[in-house]
Write a structure and sequence with these properties.
By secondary structure, the chain is mainly α. The chain is built from 17 helices and no strands.
Length: about 375
Amino acid sequence: MTPGDGTFRTPAERARRHDLDALRAVFLLFGIPYHASLTARPGPWIANFHDRSIDFIYLADYLHLFRMPGFYMIAGYFAAMLLQKRPVASYLPSRLHRLVPPFLAGTFLLVPLMHFLLLCITGNPDPLGRWWEIMTMTERNPFEHLWFVQVLLYCTAGLAALVWIFPALAHAELKGEQRNLVRWFIPLTLATGLVLGLCGLGALQLERYRYLNNFAVNFLSARYALDYLPWFLLGAILQRIPALDRRFARFSWILFLTGLAASIIVAFYPRTVPFLWRPVLTGVAALCLTQASLGALAHFIHGERRWVKALVSASFVIYLFHEPLIVLVTPVLDQLPIPLWPRFILLCLTAFFGSYGIWKLIKLSPALRYLFNGERPKKRSKS
């Protein structure tokens, strides 16, 4: 059976999803142009170019619209897949080993070092004093770009707890061809996008009316958790319905054009949409674009590819280091007598190749691989 035929995935096809692996890595790597655009858009960030352009507001908003929802959806899919293969007692420790060391290393090593070096590079007269002020600001999220790992830990622990309380969920699955679900796939997807958007609206309202206090928002990342938990659950549910799983991986022009139109309206013409409807339209756009991205990738990636494997293995470390590189390189590139857009592109390339080079160095040390990528050394088999 070819990847485009039929209405459900065979067990062999579902054992390893190289297309989802690739898309998850791509969503992580989209963090590079996203954070680089923050240096060039109007308004303060950690580091900024002297020249600014409103174009980069649009770029940042567009990238952020779908990359994190898609990432958490894929994360939920793989979490459900792993819980089919392993008991909770094995699954949860393995995920904690994978996520906690890079989270702690990034939070307590990379982020503080990034701020201190930036103060030195920009010639602050009292870098240590100013650094301490920044590190102790109560309105600052101490995890910065690593908040997504914190939320992923919440989702991972929550799903593991759910399966532990209800063991039948470990292997629960809606089998068969599910012809009605497949037949109504497009309206079902659009309706799901609306529901996800309403969840986002609810999270927005909780923060807007201060039901989430400063500690919940900045230290617990509660707003992010409320935004992305539904996407994580959607991915887990999709993995347990093989018929929809397979259909979701087939490109749909209707969903692509719908997502494209909705995303353009939200990102470039937000004032045409009432404020309370923007999260709803965003949910539809994010789900449609995620489906279209997966459908396009799945058309070309049916098995293991060397570049996919290299991209997937490096993506976490690239994400970990790309923001510090962007922040530290921005003041240097700001001295170049070139227009803003070429400077932005050069910043993206520097962040990508620099963080990829760091990954190549980290690979040489088992201790560094565990610290920054959560890879535990493989046990040697006893002869």
